[in-house]
Amino acid sequence: MKVKVGLGFDSHEFEEGKTLYLGGLKIDFPYGLRGHSDGDVLLHAVTDAILGALGEPDIGELFSDKDERWKGASSRLFLEEALRRVRDKGYEIFNLDCVLIADEPKVSPHKSAIKESLSKLLGIPSENISIKGKRREGFCEAKGMACMCVVLLGKLDEG
Ligand code: MG
């Protein structure tokens, strides 16, 4: 058995009137997350964790915010590319543990729907996905959201 662990982090500022996406799920909230793409901070952290585990270039290298192709793009595209690289190297995702850092929106009412969305996007059972919401408790200014994520990939040894 070969295993690889990857760590992802991302943060985005709030932008009034933009649609908020978390884990590919649309969340009803007056602010979205500013970014070149749809600003899905959770999918960006998950994608970077996967790419990091594989030793591949990171999300910013693969999908530059200077590239017009990714302007307003769904972050699902970035995750799909990372998943393609997982399959190409013969790995599968064992589990995923994420911390969403935000004072608002509250994560807990959306937790199971976000897990369900990620489960579909990643093709793994939702019991192998953990989403935790943490408030800042006074740390930094509440102008956006951040996400940390760790992923474990694995494959059986060949031969
Ligand atoms: Mg990002």
Weakly predicted, low-confidence segments: none
What is the helix tally? Answer: 4
- Corresponding CATH architecture: 2-Layer Sandwich
Shape annotation: globular
The whole-number mean of residue pLDDT values reads 95
> What is the CATH superfamily?
2-C-methyl-D-erythritol 2,4-cyclodiphosphate synthase
The ligands bound in this entry are: magnesium ion
User: Can you identify the CATH class?
Assistant: Alpha Beta
Numbering strands along the chain, what is their spatial order in the largest sheet? 4-1-7-5-6
- One letter per element, helices H and strands E, the order comes to EEEEHHHEHEE
Which oligomeric state applies? single chain
The termini sit apart by: 11 Å
Q: Sheet bearing the most strands, described?
A: 5 strands, mixed
Number of domains: 1
- Would you report the number of β strands? 7
The CATH topology: 60s Ribosomal Protein L30, Chain: A
Helix-residue proportion: 25-40%
Estimated share of beta-strand residues: 25-35%
- Structural classification: alpha+beta
